[in-house]
What we know:
By secondary structure, the protein is α/β, with parallel strands linked by helices.
Amino acid sequence: MDKMVIYGGEKLLGDVRISGAKNAALPIIVSSLLTDGWNTFHNIPDLADIRTIKKLLRGLGAEIEGESSVRIRTGEIASCEASYDLVRKMRASILVLGPLLARMGRARVSLPGGCAIGDRPVNLHIKALADLGAEVELRDGYVEAKASRLKGASIYFDIPTVTGTENIMMAACLAKGTTLLKNAAREPEVVNLVEVLNGMGAKISGAGTDMIIIEGVDSLHPVETTVIPDRIEAGTFMIAAGITGGNVKVSGCDPSHLDALINKLRDTGMEITIGDGGIRVKGNKEITNVDIKTLPYPGFPTDLQAQMMAFMSVGMGSSVITETVFEKRFMHASELKRMGADIQIKGNIALIRGVLKLKGAQVMATDLRASASLILAGLAAEGKTELSRVYHIDRGYQQIEKKLSALGANIKRVVNTQAEGI
Ligand code: UD1
């Protein structure tokens, strides 16, 4: 297994370019199942999760070409089943449920099972498909759904679920009649998917609000489109500049997607300038601690909570971080403590007292964003940090060690776990 070896203490300086958004690219690639012609998607990031979704789609009969620009056609659907092997690897595989049902009238998709950041059920996806008139059964760990044609309905999500909103939008755009999605997710990735679906001929309005209206159409046609930049990757590099006291231009991102983070980073004392195709972030020697509460968009993203915890660990005061989206998402805290962080966890609340300096240690990645937080901690720590299980980071960050090295970080991937140092 690969590991990352980091020698901390270098200030990050320079310009980093942000890749396409993983969480937008995944549903957009899946949406190709709704048409039978060649779709072209640009700005697709080179990530393990993208390879997983391509493998899943190939298994369903898709022809796929290209890497950063991907062409996909599913002339005929060869199978309506997503196996446990693939869904277990990546929960977002559940996204094929809605499109398969809409196009083929049936789908069999494995339940994702538990994961490191909590139970993450898919009950809201299933209930909404039933509201659209599908017969849905849970059998042998699989969701089995069928419907000759889905019917528009008024659907209320108890919680604004991101992939749930995406799944049901894809199902409803080929349904008969109009669907209302109430308490829908407002994330930029949902908006990007709506742009793609409307480009295919769907009739969806209200994207970016909590009420999405979908007028069903009889068929959709292929589309050519570009995926939005990854706001979580951008945010991670902004926090990296802060934790190292650096000066970094984060290029090619969309600052309007990052309001919640920009606001918090300014409160820590960082200088942030927007313009010229990106965001310039300058770290401050003295870091003021801030409190954070994660919320659905446009609130502070849970996907940047772990990185902020690392940052707040080296602040001047103390912070309270409240995780309201995934209540068990604090696995990184115990690893940060191994590096000298002072963190106490009670339920979904973390109290962090700044220690001014972290110390390099051997730590283990437990999930995607936890691994990003440990890399940031390693960049700021004294001495050597060794991060194992880096396959987690490869799911969602394109060449993170190369991008960080180009900014002056002392970080290297070691393929052979026996190898020592850099
Ligand atoms: C997506 C993102 C993930 C991000 C998360 C929250 C993708 C591929 N992943 O995940 O990176 O951290 O949004 O911003 O886009 N819930 C239920 N029942 C359901 C569905 C969700 O109770 O059927 C709960 C979840 O347990 C969680 C909350 O709703 O507490 C929000 O989860 P959700 O928005 O669905 O997350 P994902 O779409 O899985």
